[in-house]
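Put briefly, the fold is written as integer tokens. The lines below illustrate.
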Amino acid sequence: MFSLVQRCCYSTPFKLHKFTGAGLLLHGKNKTTCPSPSLRLRRDVSLLSRSPSFNPASLYATKLQAFHTSLPFFKKKTPRDSEIKKPGVLERSMESLKDAPKPALYLSLAGLIPFVSVPLAMAIQGTYYPELAFAQVTYGAVTVSFLGGMRWGFALPEKSPAKPDWLNLANSTVPPIFAWQALLLKDITSGAVMLVMALGIALHYDISLLPDYPRWFKVLRVVGTVVMVLSLLATAALKAVSEMELSDSRNKWQSSK
């Protein structure tokens, strides 16, 4: 046994590595056998030389991987489904106007010019013109009558989802009656308020009672009604302002006397 240990301690490196493996196997089989200090030292040096942490190839691969790996804050984050902003009701409604036929869209927008031009012209000139206000109310009465008559054209065809019954045909006569009352009233403010009520009734018919209209038509009706109502109210407000200024000027003239 002593001769075997002496041979292992003073042998060549090749024999040392070979015996080290055999010694490890022997140590695994018999745990009570303890190698000599010199053999343990040589075995530790051999294991350290084989450690992958000191391998130049492994160090180069680690540096190369770190070079090609980008930092977390440089990576492009993909938005989640919950973070993607979905278009709102107003955006979807405006996008539906793209499906409208060009003649229907352009003629509807052109029909709003007489409503908008009257209060805009009076506001620019700073003067209220009763003739222009009455012309606006007259044009509004014609428009309301046209909107009421559309229900007849929608309910009379044979394949129409709306039946030509008393409800559909009678409701179409309500807006023209309001328009007629607006023309009979001598006050422009009262006539404008009557037309606003008629426009609201006609819009309620087209949006709620006749849901088979296409979406672009309903959006167009809402936009047109809002513009017409605001134009009529603007004319009524300009009249009220002109009357206040006229009354103030009269009071100052009477007080000066």
